[in-house]
Amino acid sequence: MGRIDGVHLVVVLCLGISVGWVCCQDNDNVTAVYIVTLKEAPGAVYNAEFVVKTKPLKQDGKVNRLDKPLASNISRRGWYNGHNISRYHDSILREVLKGENYLKLYSYHYLINGFAVLVTPPQAVKLSQRREIANVVLDFSVRTATTYTPQFLGLPQGAWPKNGGFETAGEGVVIGFVDTGIDPKHPSFSDDSSGNPYPIPKHFSGICEITRDFPSGSCNRKLVGARHFAASAITRGIFNASKDYASPSDGDGHGTHTAATAAGNHGIPVIVAGHHYGDASGMAPRSHIAVYKALYKSFGGFAADVVAAIDQAAQDGVDIISLSITPNRRPPGIATYFNPIDMALLAAVKVGIFVVQAAGNTGPSAKSISSFSPWIFTVGAAAHGRVYSNSILLGNNISIPGVGLAPGTKNASMYTMVSAVHALNDTAAVDNMYVGECQDPNSLNRDIIQGNLLICSYSIRFVLGMSSIKQALTTAKNLSAVGVVFYLDPFVIGYQLNPVPMAIPGIILSSPDDSKILLQYYNSSLSRDVITQKITKFGAAASISGGVKATFSNSVPKVMYYSARGPDPEDKFLDNADILKPNLVAPGNLIWSAWSSHGTDSSEFLGENFAMMSGTSMAAPHVAGLAALIKKKFPSFSPSAIGSALSTTASLNDKNGQLMMAQRAYSNPDLNQSPATPFDMGSGFVNATAALDPGLIFDVAYDDYMSFLCSINGSSPVVLNFTGMSCKTSTINGADLNLPSITIAKLNQSRTVQRTVMNIARNETYRVGWTAPLGASLKAEPMQFFIASGERQVLTISINATANSPVVTFGKIGLFGDKGHTIHIPLSIISKNCYNTTNT
């Protein structure tokens, strides 16, 4: 059954990050995996190829590129290469742990300099005391967090033609997926392009790992690389080779789904349970895919494996990294930014890689975001308007809505309904409380059920995966039932049902109240023998309308209830983070995409080539694919420039022109919604076409992120340890970063921030307008400016508190160009200690 992604729950043991800090367990003899970081800078620091100068180049008076790679003035250290680094790590381990048992799992040398090792807590303490070693951190767990969405996003009419059509959309761009692997046999990843062969991306150097589960020939010009990382899981003894596959092969389905969403081939028929649901396409159908499997069906994943995957992806030369994963809990320490995954991703951004991460499925509560670093582009989930409606018409003329990707009863004819609990055969166990779930055809009487609609109970066991719709349908088919009607057990409260594929007429009633209406009608229509009380006649009848055909709503997009909310969570080491999260929202609900032939993550789609899934995991690859279109058009855009193009052009309204809504409750979400705020939707809903012509760009350099980190109290040694760079005096905080948003968690009387925009389009004159947040006044200077192509303009925004406010209030700034470009800047503040209003 389609479900909200992110069900792998693994207990986090412990995590902390500071110089020489180690998390110890009670038993000194219990081994655990630790991630060890050295003080020597990683290889990316010395990689001259990726050092860039953020100054616009002009050719014939026009901007040619935003950033052009230049020769570095930093010479490579003679000893640096992966092999030498690994040997250096080995020598440290031998010296520190002389004669003791340990197992090194990985050497990290490109994005961070360090290794993962299996040792005891006392051994970890020894390592932490070594002068070359900066941090020793206990490994922690992570979890996983389309046929219509290209049309909904306007790709066929807008973004694709701007990239030369779908035939070339994203061509040459490599997207790296850190996920559960891939099914290489799926047609979404074939390079058989009917006379339009895929090019070989010359900048990519990855390999295709060959195993029994992933044989030679699995990779091609579309799927250009595939590897797997599972050393941390294997050392814990939880790796199940029969289910998880020691290869890039996808035993879950999640990785195949996300890869196809971003970059699956165009025009692949979506056929599920014998029904055709349209043709699928990725957002950038000509982009290349590189797979770095670090998550698994049985247990989720671990940071040590994820960092190894990210490190390898960067070395291989991917342009974009898509992460539909989140940590199982917010990492504590000197500041949450200083964890191995986020630090590796910061180094990836340094070498020019755009990083997209799912926001997490922990909404709708505030500050529930799982991806919070400003260098990561965080994506929430929104509905996109395609709905598969189903209903059942009872014999008493009452119609009840439900779900189910199922055909209707023939010619809308009425059929007699028979409950499974009233159709037991002589051998059935009368006390079997689960017989009503229709999982065992041997317990039911075929003569009673044949030609009728079978009523089954949808209990909590279906939610937990102990029972399945697929098995109930098999039971009904074996007993020659016309179709199946599932009523919701009263113990299944607030659970959101997604459409489920059914080959025969069927429906699942989606609320306990509607289920009561069905059962009351059914029970009142039974005729019984006066003496024996045996049923003599089943009098209830119904017809099922069917839910194969989609309907479309204009009251979308809307932010889904499960999408994690911002702002950046509170951190005891920071007075305020002042970072807007999520960055934006994208389609994430009820997404059709490719499914692995081995995929077991959703039992209802087992054996199918496509599956419908929901979650921020589905939203992130939409943005990764759209980023590939931007990278194709602007090959030298920095990661922050790509993020700026996506953010400043995002939409704030739904298809009806009304303010976008956000669902506020898990139960009955459409009855509990209100206008979306920036903490729900970031800059808004992604606008694929406008993002390819943003007009102005906000750029943030790597050094700016470093200054932000250095401003955190006590961070200097940690920054040095992770990056090899020394901190200078810095007072910059999140609000000072040149982001396309402004967030001030504690506005103390007044605050002035600056933003610098660069014109990547033709000469244009912009007018500046704004709406001030409640409790504040606002002024932007200049109020109008002319900016030539390739030039920069500094905007000064002054914000004054006019009233104290214990809650956040929102405003916005708009830049309106006379050539049609419009740039949105969301503004969020909490006013504290305001001036008297007469003085403002």
From TrEMBL:
* UniProt-listed CDD domains: PA_subtilisin_like, Peptidases_S8_3
Which Pfam families is this protein grouped with?
fn3_6, Inhibitor_I9, Peptidase_S8
- List residues of the Subtilisin-like protease fibronectin type-III domain: 736-829
**Keywords tagged on the record:** Glycoprotein, Hydrolase, Protease, Serine protease, Signal
Gene3D superfamilies registered for this protein in UniProt = 2.60.40.2310, 3.50.30.30, Peptidase S8 propeptide/proteinase inhibitor I9, Peptidase S8/S53 domain
Q: Where in the cell is it found?
A: Secreted
Q: What is its main location?
A: secreted
InterPro entries reported for this sequence: Peptidase_S8/S53_dom, Peptidase_S8/S53_dom_sf, Peptidase_S8_Asp-AS, Peptidase_S8_Ser-AS, Peptidase_S8_subtilisin-rel, Peptidases_S8_3, S8pro/Inhibitor_I9, S8pro/Inhibitor_I9_sf
What residue stretch is flagged as signal peptide?
1-24
Catalytic center at which residues? Answer: D179, H254, S617
Domain Inhibitor I9 span(s) in chain numbering: 33-144
Q: Name one GO molecular function term.
A: serine-type endopeptidase activity
Family statement: Belongs to the peptidase S8 family.
Q: What is this protein called?
A: Uncharacterized protein
- Origin species, per record, is Daucus carota subsp. sativus
What does UniProt list as this organism's lineage?
Answer: Eukaryota, Viridiplantae, Streptophyta, Embryophyta, Tracheophyta
